[in-house]
Structures are given as C-alpha cells and as structure tokens.
Design goal:
Elements: H1 7-27, H2 30-45, H3 51-70, H4 74-90, H5 95-109, H6 116-129, H7 134-152
C-alpha cells in the first residue's frame, strides 16, 4: 500500500480498507480480507499522531475476528483480539479503541466455553476501569448473553 502524502487521503485509504474487508467477507474471499488486514498495521504505525487511522484499523480487526469465528479459526481470532487489546492499552485516551475492543469481545463470547469466559473477564475489567463509558457496560451485557447462549447450546 503506497502511503498518501495528505492526512485526509490517508484516512480515506483506511476507510477504503475497512470497506474492502467487509466486501471481501461478503463475497467469501477471506484471503483477500486477511491480506488487506496484514498491510494496515504498517500503514497506521507510519502515522502515529493520526488517531483516525487507528480507529479504522480496529474496525477492520473487528470484522476479521467475525470472519475467523465463522470459520472456526479461534486462534487467529484470539491473536487479532489480543492485538486490539494491546492497541487499546497503548492509547488509553482513545475511547473509540476500547469500544471496538468491546465489540470484538462481544463477538468472541459467542464462541463459548473455549475462550469466551476469559474474554468476558477481560471485558468486565475494561468496563470497571472506565466507568464513564456506559457503552462498555452495554456491550458487557451483550457479551454475557452471547456467552450464556453459547454455553447452553
């Protein structure tokens, strides 16, 4: 991916990457979705001051976690989830990253007994650590419901 020289163009490239991953997912072309995701971290790390690029990176990661879940690739989903968690930890002033991490965790809890309880515990700790972000509590409730459904099915 050749990097644009203007911030607005870089952000548009990131938005396009998010859209492409979603489109490839819908078309069933999961390898192309993964290839785009593999390029994004380098792109984002080249511009550390541009918060919007990080947000788009996590949007792609959330979609990719869903793709991995559909195909039972739990380890790849977990690896991507851990990357999201690390990014959110490195940027504690960016609540959008925590919200995206929480969304990914909700999806992850649908995987059931395998990794769901551990991810749920991490999400619970995140919600407690950020009590001024009610969306995290809402997503924690959704994660609990997904975990309940997946372990009783």
């Amino acid at each position: 991916m050749k990097y644009a020289q203007e911030a607005i163009l870089r952000e548009r490239l990131a938005v396009a990457a998010v859209n492409l991953v979603g489109a490839y997912y819908k078309l069933g072309d999961y390898e192309s979705a993964r290839e785009i995701y593999r390029q994004i971290p380098d792109f984002v790390s080249s511009y550390p001051a541009e918060d919007a690029l990080r947000v788009h990176l996590v949007d792609v990661a959330v979609t990719l976690i869903a793709i991995y879940g559909v195909f039972g690739e739990r380890e790849k989903a977990r690896e991507t989830h851990d990357q999201l968690a690390a990014l959110a930890t490195c940027h504690p002033t960016e609540p959008k990253l925590r919200k995206s991490l929480a969304k990914a965790s909700v999806n992850f809890c649908a995987y059931g007994r395998e990794m769901g309880p551990e991810i749920y515990a991490q999400l619970a700790a995140l919600a407690v650590a950020h009590p001024t972000e009610p969306v995290l509590l809402e997503l924690l409730d959704q994660a609990a419901e997904n975990l309940r459904r997946s372990t009783t099915a």
